[in-house]
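INFO batch 0412 | record 1 of 1 | parsing
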Amino acid sequence: MMGSMKILVTAGGQGTKLWPYSREDKPKQFQPIVGDVSSYTENIQTLLKKFAPEDIYISSKRRFIKYISEQSPQIPLKNYIIEPDIAKDRGPGEGLAFLRLSVLHPDEPVFLVQADDIRLPEDAFLKMVEDAGKIVAKEKSFVTGGIKATEPNMGIDYLKLGERLHQDTGQEVYAVGEFITRLKSYKETKELIENFRVVAHCNHLCWYPGMLLDAYKKHRPDWYDALMRMKACFDKPGEDAAIEEIYASMEKGPTEDVTKHVMNSPESRVILLPFKWIDIGTWGSVYDYLEGGDGTTNYADGKGVFVDTRGTFVKTSNDKKVVAVAGVDDLIIVDTDDVLLVIPKYKIEQIKDIQKLLKDQGDTEYL
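INFO prediction complete | emitting tokens
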């Protein structure tokens, strides 16, 4: 077991794009979307091969504690970092986690693992975590992860690469030349990846929690001030209610509102991920991962029968139910106990319109 480094597993997201499996009261990271166990369980099982349970911290919303205790009983309860049940994007929630760790372990690097991703092979992932911690401990550099950009992707940020460093680790490590916030057009994105040495940014950050808080202070002072007011409530009567009130007042925003500035400094580093990283964010990405071909094969997680049909994905929670599809192409069909979703792959973003309609109709039990 490796010591002198902490792992922060973030598991508080809502996963709304994977509805109707992913629900407000049980989001995607706790559901067996791919395979027989949840991505949360899979990540914890992997991390426990290298790290002691007491070195792994879990950051999530209060209402998800039951799933955390069921799916990772090895992790001590004192290692739970509880966010209020308020959707604020990652910036405030991760800020609260960094704050807790800065009090508990100010002198140890923390590596952030998002629980809704799949990483294979796991040995390469664990080696990258270990090497990132060594770089941070040696240099105090901010470290993040990247993957080679081959196709334009409008939904992600990019990093220009500087010089290659740390060849002794066996990792492909570079200085960060520039952080580039996601561009507004396909043409601009295509030109970027064709004309510059760039990688797609994919988090996996590693740094000291106190240095992260210093970055919050510099780049999002409003968040920092709220976090310091929370800190003043630690270990005092009424702590939970006071933190919830302060948290509710924080503006929504991604952690990149802070870290993009850090990544633009000469001291930041990016490790090209030496493993396959699958961000299971939409049913389209689940299909792409499981089908693994040219997008024309049918895939059924359950009993699927396909006639004159191409590129269609079926997932059902009832392994005794036959889902028969004929004469249509490129559909996503997801069947749960109380919801059946049928939607073309190229219109997958309309799931949010369905959710809005259900909410407006008062049918929130289906969300």
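INFO post-check: The mean pLDDT is 91.
INFO record closed
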